[in-house]
Amino acid sequence: MLKTTTTHVRALTTSDLPELNALLDRDPLVNLFIRNRVDATKLQTRWLGGQVWGYFEDGALVSACHAGANVVPAQATPAAVEAFAEQAVSDNVRPSSIVGPRDAVLPMWKLLEPHWGPARSPRLDQPFMVLEHDSHLRPDPRVRPVVLDEFDTVYPACVAMFTEEVGVDPEIGNRSGYRARVAQLISQGWAFAIIEDGDVLFKAEVGAATPYACQIQGVYVRPDQRGQGIAAPALAAVVQQARATVAPIVTLYVNDHNTAARRAYERVGFEQTATFASILL
């Protein structure tokens, strides 16, 4: 007689933290975003701004999914992807994006597209890249952590990068939320820039971190400075400083079609280890 597997999905609570952390630690680089959120909030809803769902088989946690402003699956099996999509529809979740490993995001989007589609910007091939040591490039000595007094100098560059990359002006809608997020990154020492004569020539931030690794985001070169070889040495400096002050391994992901960025990251020493996808809604 065949054994029937019992499955269910539910919101995880603080009592689930040991099992959830063990699950996320199966791939601590790819699962970095969720681990960062879990470490920061301890799954308390008021801080999490959503939930983390768990998919269980015979009482054991098999997969997880962050469900808030972003839907992010972790260690998601095909059965878990289907269950998470059903849960999202049932709970009327309305995120701004679905992000994560492509082999989970694309089948999840296929199930959710009839309810949430069409996508504003589907990004179906995003190399996930890793660097575990300082770059062989000479780091640009002008790169340094941004200080909070420089918020008004750096903020316009953050808005410009976000608008260019995401296709939405972050000042429309929740402007105060975006300003608070930029200020938070600066306060944490996670924002880095080249600032000359009151102008931002380059900037990047660490968007998430665990004791094991961190993730760079928001890489920006002022438009009139592009094509002059600034990005790679500047990013090498960010890697060096992030490894010294945040976490020993540095990760990022990039759109496949952004060949200039990919070449810069490869020059720094980043290597692709996985593939992400993002569905911007």
Automatic annotation (TrEMBL):
Residues crossing the lipid bilayer are: none
GO MF annotation: an example: acyltransferase activity, transferring groups other than amino-acyl groups
Q: Name a Pfam family for this protein.
A: DUF4081
Superkingdom field = Bacteria
Q: What is the lineage of its organism?
A: Bacteria, Bacillati, Actinomycetota, Actinomycetes, Propionibacteriales
Q: What is the name attached to this protein's record?
A: GNAT family N-acetyltransferase
Do you know which Gene3D superfamilies this protein is assigned to?
Answer: 3.40.630.30
N-acetyltransferase domain location: 141-281
